[in-house]
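A favour, since you know our C-alpha cells better than I do. What I am after is a single protein written out in full by you. Could you add the entry underneath, on a fresh line?


***
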Amino acid sequence: MMEIDSDSEQSSTKKKIETLQGFILGPLTSSISKLSFSSRGIPSDEDFHFYYNFNEFKKPIKEIVKKTESTLKSIGTSTSGIWGKNLSFPDDLDDAYDWLVNINDELFERFDSCVDEFKKVRKMEEESGKRVSSIMDEDGFQLVGKKKKGENRNLEKDEVEKMGSFSSAVKTVSRDARTTAARPRVPFHIPSITRPQREFKMVVDNSNEPFEHFWLEKSEDGSRVIHPLENYTDLDFIDRHTMDVELVKPLPVESTPFKLVEEVKDLKELAVKLHDVNEFA
C-alpha cells in the first residue's frame, strides 16, 4: 500500500510540474509582453475618457480589454491544477484588484517557501557532506505549500539512519493572518534628525498651557508677547529714495512711430515683422 501511495503521489506531482512548465513556456509570456507593450501608449485619467468618446480609440481598447480578461481567466483556471486552489478570475471588475493581490501573495509565499526549502536541503548537505535527493533534481521545479505528515525523502540507508525522515512540509502564512496581525509601529520622528528642543536646548513644558516663546519680548505688564513686526510702522516699509528720481515724460504722439493697419494684408505683414523681432517695448 505504501508503494502504491508513493507512486500515485509522484505521478500527481509530475503532472503538476508538467502543467507548470507548460503554463510558463506557453503563450502566457508572449501575451503578457504584448499587453505591457501595447499599454505604454494608452493615455490615462482625463485623456482616456476624452479619447474613449471616439470609435477609433474605443474599438482597439475593447479588444485589449478582451485579451487581458482572457489571459487573466486562463491564469485563474490554471491555479487549480498547479496550486490546488480555485482562484478563478471574478466577473465583477471591482473585485479584480483584490484577485490580483491574492495571486501575487500566493506566488510570493510559495516562492519564499521554495527558497526556505532549498536552504534547508543545502544546510543538510553541508552538515552531512552527502547529497540529498529531492523532487527538484528531475525537472528543476518543486511544489511546496501542502503540509503532509510522514512524507519521506528518497535518502540512502545511511542517511536515513543518521538524519531520519525529512518532511517537505512548509508552513505558509495565509493572507488573512497577515492582514489581521498587528502592524509594526512607524515612528513619528525620524531618529536621524535632531529634535529642536535638544538642538536649541529648550525646556519642554508639557502642561496644558499655550506655548510662549522665550525669545520674544513681552509687554510691560507681561500679559502678551510683542511680535517683532510691531516695532515697525508703515513708513518703514516704504522706499525713501523714490523722491530723488526724476520723472521722465513719454514722447509725444507725433514723434512716436506706429503702424496703421487697415486691411488683412497689412495685418499679416505686421505679424511677420513682429515674429522676427527679438524684443520690443
